[in-house]
Amino acid sequence: MGARNQTQVVEFVFMGFSGIPNSHIYLFLPFLAIYLVTILGNLMIFTMIQLDSSLHTPMYYFLSHLSCLDICISSVTVPKILVNFLYQQQTIPYNQCMAQMFFFLSFTGTEALLLAVMAYDRYTAICKPLHYSRLMSTKLCILLSSAAWFWGFLDSALHTALSSKLYFCGVNQIHHIFCDLPPLIKITCSDTRINEMVIHITSMASLFVGVAPFLFTILSYIFILSSILKIHSTTGKRKAFSTCASHLIVVIIYYGNALLNYDRPSSGYSLEIDTLVSTMFCIIPPMLNPLIYSLRNKEVKGALKKVLESQSKSTCLHTIK
């Protein structure tokens, strides 16, 4: 116990952009702009879905959950990054690091499952249109979304509980810009049995929560594309594909960034490039998702137009009064 207490880490130091002189000056404003666009864009999508009754369908119900998740993912990491840039410090207390990792893994794990649920929704809409209302009932939608949130938090709790048992032998420099599982595992004392068990268990959990939804999503889109190709008219094919195009783009961006973040070579990149690639995973998809759905979806653009028109009318009436 004495040896462990001597090496107890009370805070971590982020080394992600330490090689860039005056990085806080060049990175603060871009990160702030991305964060603001993410929050405003996702709030806009969520608000429109709640206000417009024509968007009260399973597809937009899940989209509202996706918007909430994107706000949460960005808010878990970016504000701390901005504070560190602003005060030119790159530290985080141990307990805050564990909390940040817990919520980050919870929300990203939930999003992976939610994207799989959304793929199933698109599969039933295109491949089984006559049974869509029965297959995607309100009760089932609530059950699927709740299951995604529950399992995301349960998996993250497992990761965080096991990570809290790790010892770092006095090493507290994380080659990252926020607390995530892979950077912590890299600096832990891995020569003990408990560390080897932790890595094995977390790898198995990641395989189930990360790979299974991905494979389910891919399988759903194989059936979707197969059904679309069987449609004879070009107009029908275009209409069917347009109903799932936005979600497909979001899936590609999400899993593309996840692949770069968790499955890239361990060597061959500078620390700054490696950190930048990892950081893109938590800030780029949440920012792009509302833009993709608002720019490519006629119903969302129509709802936005109605909200803006009603807001303009209320402003005019208020001015007249």
Task: Describe the protein in words.
This protein has 321 residues and is mainly α. It has a single domain, classed as Rhodopsin 7-helix transmembrane proteins (Rhopdopsin 7-helix transmembrane proteins). Helix content is 78%, strand content 3%. It has helices at 2-6, 23-51, 58-87, 94-127, 132-135, 138-163, 181-187, 193-229, 234-262, 271-296, 298-320; strands at 11-14, 91-93, 173-174. The chain has a three-stranded mixed beta sheet. Helix 4 runs antiparallel to helix 6 (138-163) and helix 8 (193-229) runs antiparallel to helix 9. Mean pLDDT is 78; it is low at 1-6.
In short:
78% of the residues lie in helices and 3% in strands.
CATH class designation:
Mainly Alpha
Our count of helices gives 11
Low-pLDDT stretches are 1-6
State the total count of DSSP E strands.
Answer: 3
**What structural class should be given to the helix and strand makeup?**
mainly alpha
Keywords:
three-stranded mixed sheet; 321 residues
